[in-house]
Amino acid sequence: MFAIAGFTFVLIILGILAVLLLMSVLVVPQSDVYVIEKLGKYHRTLFSGLHFRLPVVERVAYKQTLRIKELDLMVATKTKDNVFVQVPVNVQYFVNENEQDIRNSVYRLSNPENQMRSYIQQNIVGSLSKLDLDEAYGSLHQVGLALQGELTEKIGEYGYVIKDTNVIDVEPAPEVKDAMNQVNTSERKRQAQILTAEGNKAAAILEAEAERDARRLRGEGIAQEGDEIAKGMKERIDKLKDAGLTADAAVEWLKFNDGIAVYTALASSNNAKVIMMDNNLGPNSGQPMTSEDITRSIIRADEVQGR
């Protein structure tokens, strides 16, 4: 009987030792750390791998992950021009892999996400209150960098590292969006009208310049034609002077001859029925012309012109 009792006692002792042995073994997963307290006080930090502890005396007080976490937040605020907007913000952060930083993350800050939410809210409200809505759209990157700097300063002392902050968008109320679209549409129409007006103006200028150049060219042509007529007239006068006429007589003869040429052309026209002739065309100025004068003048004009 005593042997059985002794054997049972040994089994109990062995069972207790086996349980204590199992309790002393700790396997810490990859990217995690365990904070060990001894009799209620921080004792050590265990990183990933196999570890042993004193059962009962030492306990796992905190399990902290070293993986990157994300915090998504929607901030409601208004811009400098009093437009109420919703601003979605994304923050990526992690615990620094340093024993002191790990201790700070579990002992100094009980709820890091709530603390960061408060800092994010304050920062975004303060930044956008200084910007108009249009300026806010163009400053999202700068606002994100400013937020990251402030979070790093405020949260860094608690062992957290801010990897990235993204101020994703500025979302005004639907009626504000509709109004902005109408303004943008009106502005695009105004710009199109300006471009059309400028095009019409340019076309009008080009047309005016073309008309000016055409008139100039016509004037130059008329001037050149006059020069040629004058040159031809001079040559004819020179021929008459060479034939023995004075300059005045040559001019009078050309006037008479050209007049006869005009009347001859009119007489040859199918529509010409009556020709009214000027008395001054006669050889004796101021004396009426006879048929013989007209005949002699036509014959003489043909001779002078070489026909």
UniProtKB/TrEMBL annotation:
Domain of life: Bacteria
Residues covered by the Band domain: 23-184
InterPro entries referenced in this protein's UniProt entry, alphabetically: Band7/mec-2_domain, Band_7, Band_7/SPFH_dom_sf
Pfam family, one: Band_7
Name of protein: SPFH domain-containing protein
